[in-house]
Amino acid sequence: MANNSFRGSKHGRRGEANHETEFSCSLQELRSLMELRGAEAITRIQECYGDVNGLCGRLRTSPVEGLDGKSEDINRRKQNFGQNVIPPKKPKTFVQLVWEALQDVTLIILEVAAIISLGLSFYSPPDAERQNCGEAAGGVEDEGEAEAGWIEGAAILLSVVCVVLVTAFNDWSKEKQFRGLQSRIEQEQKFTVVRGGQVIQIKVSEIVVGDIAQVKYGDLLPADGVLIQGNDLKIDESSLTGESDHVKKTLDKDPMLLSGTHVMEGSGKMLVTAVGVNSQTGIIFTLLGAGEEGKKEDKGKKGKQHITDGATVEMQPLNEDGEQDKKKKNLPKKEKSVLQGKLTKLAVQIGKAGLFMSTITVIILITRFLIDTFWIQGVVWTAECVPIYIQFLVKFFIIGVTVLVVAVPEGLPLAVTISLAYSVKKMMKDNNLVRHLDACETMGNATAICSDKTGTLTMNRMTVVQAYIAGHHYKKVPESDLIPVKILDLLTLGIGVNCAYTTKIMPPEREGGLPRQVGNKTECALLGFTLDLHRDYQSIRNEIPEEKLFKVYTFNSVRKSMSTVLKNHDGSYRMFSKGASEILLKKCCQILMASGEAKAFKSRDRDDLVKRVVESMASEGLRTICLAYRDFPASEGEPDWDNEAQILTGLTCIAVVGIEDPVRPEVPDAIRKCQRAGITVRMVTGDNINTARAIATKCGILHPGDDFLCLEGKEFNRRIRNELGEIEQERIDKIWPKLRVLARSSPTDKHTLVKGIIDSTVLEQSQVVAVTGDGTNDGPALKKADVGFAMGIAGTDVAKEASDIILTDDNFSSIVKAVMWGRNVYDSISKFLQFQLTVNVVAVIVAFSGACITQDSPLKAVQMLWVNLIMDTFASLALATEPPTEALLLRNPYGRNKPLISRTMMKNILGHAVYQLTTIFLLLFLGEKMFDIDNGRNAPLHAPPSEHYTIVFNTFVLMQIFNEFNARKIHGERNVFEGVFNNIIFCTIVLGTLVIQILIVQFGGKPFSCVSLTIEQWLWCIFLGVGSLLWGQLVSSIPTKWLKFLKTAGHGTQREEIPEEELEEMKDMDEIDHAEMELRRGQVLWCRGLNRIQTQVRFACWIRISPHTSCDVVNKIILTVTFEKFSTFSRIRKQFSSVKDPREVTMTKTNSEWRGT
């Protein structure tokens, strides 16, 4: 049978590569070949090359031994056919980044006001005329001071320039970091090729035309190629064509393999024919890139590319308006980041309040000025005084903008960015590779974890420890002389050929170590078993290379088995099978006995064997595998190999083995921590229910006497479906709260369970579900989950792409660390909010009251820029980098509905605001008497700075510095210094802020509206600042339950709160983005215009572009973030294709990773 196999010349024409410098195929010829599909492609290959062997010859390569790997040959191929790299988009220049930073509307307002103020400051009418313009215009004692009126405008302009330059530098450094990260990813991505007859792994970027690449289940193809040999190969080409059906690849129907597509089932070899920009994906990528150059950036977003590998580019489906999108509209929406929604809603509310306060301030100032000047003083309007009046208007306008600047916590987006970026960096060390930043904080809200068993809860180092062979149940691996030679030969041959040839046992890396297991761990256990029996599986593979295998039925989650057919010399066939014992035993009609002969195996014998052997092994937590074979005599003719049901019957059982996969020693403790933290852990496995139950008990998921459910996939489906076979949410709601183990489950079952838990409303708290997965068909469940964890070691490329976080050590305890970091992110942002809102409440009331009472803000515009741009930034850096503690796992998850600002936090905010306002107003209205200094109130237009207002400003800043310590605790704890020295960044920033404040006050002069203070005045300022620490103890003594009148703030938008018409508008979106919802409601244009209320939802954009995010991308964010400000709201959508609902779409179930056996 030749449908899937290639049997060509062993050496092809590789020898000619050394003598000929040119190839018999041009680049254009190969490009045009790869544009063909199906019958057209086969016809072209036959007409031009004869067959694939001929094409290999033209490209000077061997289908069996590959390229010789010599550097001259590789370099020549790169020159002729290109490199497997797609050049990145040209980065923005520093000037472009500066221009973008200047688009901030609030900065533009300040610039315009500062320029007008600057221009008018140089106009000075004669004193006599100035006196005629009203009292406020005159009275300047020192001419030099009046002439220095330009300083305030210049200082504001300088501050704006400083902010713009630092913002641009920050963006530039982040882009540079990202480029560095991308090149590192390209270096780390590897693929398996055959060179010089050896199977090796090379960097994806090193793949060249003519390479023979080995493709297997779960791979993301890095280049275009033509199939040489395939076993049951099925490809998902939806990323290029938009077609969701898997395409079967065979030599006689469709041998064309395209880059960027996923191997969903089977394995094979392909001849690489196009790489990089010449591959089909590269061509489309180049076209899209060229198209984007001529478009505006906002329009270009629709065709966004997602670079997934060094040279593999995942594209959005081209037929965006096609049927697939129509299907999408009916699918349930996955809700996006909880935190983003809460922050956006809060920022919109604060922004509205700030705009209202600033408008009222300007109106009151102008009204007071007009009444005082033209009514009370009776000044007559003259044209000479107009510039003076305009100066006042500009001054009032600057005060109004100052109130707006103070009102809105523009440090908030920065705090979110820093907190998430810092967490991502640290999580890398805890074996969590975060692909999507919002997954960090979502993990902090997790209420349920659906975990795989193999490799996550267990060590994934499998060994055969028990065996049932020739009628004997051996409790440990038997000596080879105890097994009949005939059975031993069959066993060794069956295991050797019926395990993937990529799976092997390698020598230990160091002397005395354990042998290395490469490939599928279940198959490694079986190969190790043959070595324990002193047999060599490799000699069998050398004798029967993969090309000689007649037919392979690869493992998938439907078959739960794998079978390989060999053709004998006499025309007969022998098929070896291995798979889940209770499934394969039902297909056996004979069993080999001690004599080496087969005897009849009836249902009664099978039930007895299952009870005595299989259940006994499973109860000890062993995975049981049945090994069997079947002969097809030549006299019966060639069977119908496509009729699997008929082929996989009448087997003869060789043996049943028990494979041990020990529970990871750290897992029971990790699960205890989860349970204490209010997180339910469920095991979802393809294993036998008895094995699953035993492992769950060892892990601590189940405890003796617990009233919890353990179900098999079949029983689970029976319970959740109605008479018509449809899934009902009410039925799922009766099961999932008590379900702890789901055994013999398919990926569809996992998706159904995850969806059922997320959609459930049976509990008061909405469920936030995390899921682990490693197989290709785990993709839908990983996408559906709030947080998807893919296995870094055992996981396929497809699973990794569908995930939010990759576990680089495949260890469950790393998930617990992710929970800790997630909760820490949430708490860090709450800490910053508590601090920031205290500053804002006080500063707004002081600026507003001062402006209305004294016609001037006690806190000048430049001082406000210092407080906002520097203090906020420093505070966000200090409070957002608090390390997590074990105490975070001692409370239940916050969930979707908990407000960002709790009653305790509101008590702290208002309590400290009372102290600070009392202190500031005392200093403002009685300060001159308390310190025996000149009164600074009602100063003329260009009056010099006063000691009075300098003390007010200094005390205000010092109270904020000491209040940072109070803000470290948000749950009413008394000891605000606990663990403070564990955060070096916090200590450095508090000290640094204090030093800068001293320099501003003592040497800031006119630009900062300050005069130097005496030691006695400084001591009073410090005393009042420290007072906030003592006041904090008093505030925390007041029980929160007494203050029921306090309201919470920062609630997320609930699904039921979204109006029908808005839901209708979102029907073509994959996810409900709460942040976008709030933007729509909060007057989008207004939000875009005011940078201060932008909640900066784009912090993921720089990092999420790559699915293998590393901590490198955040290094510079932490270092250069001092003046960070961001300028546009941008939408974030996960680049996920739609998740299929199992009720509407039948999913192809594949999983050759042997998880489910």
From TrEMBL:
Coiled coil: none annotated. GO terms for cellular component: plasma membrane. It is a multi-pass membrane protein. InterPro entries: ATP_Ca_trans_C, ATPase_P-typ_cation-transptr_C, ATPase_P-typ_cation-transptr_N, ATPase_P-typ_cyto_dom_N, ATPase_P-typ_P_site, ATPase_P-typ_TM_dom_sf, ATPase_P-typ_transduc_dom_A_sf, ATPase_P-type_domA. It catalyses: Ca(2+)(in) + ATP + H2O = Ca(2+)(out) + ADP + phosphate + H(+). Its main location: membrane. GO terms for molecular function: ATP binding; ATP hydrolysis activity; calmodulin binding; metal ion binding; P-type calcium transporter activity; PDZ domain binding. NCBIfam families: ATPase-IIB_Ca, ATPase_P-type. Belongs to the cation transport ATPase (P-type) (TC 3.A.3) family. Type IIB subfamily. This is Calcium-transporting ATPase. It comes from Amphiprion ocellaris (Clown anemonefish). The lineage of its organism: Eukaryota, Metazoa, Chordata, Craniata, Vertebrata.
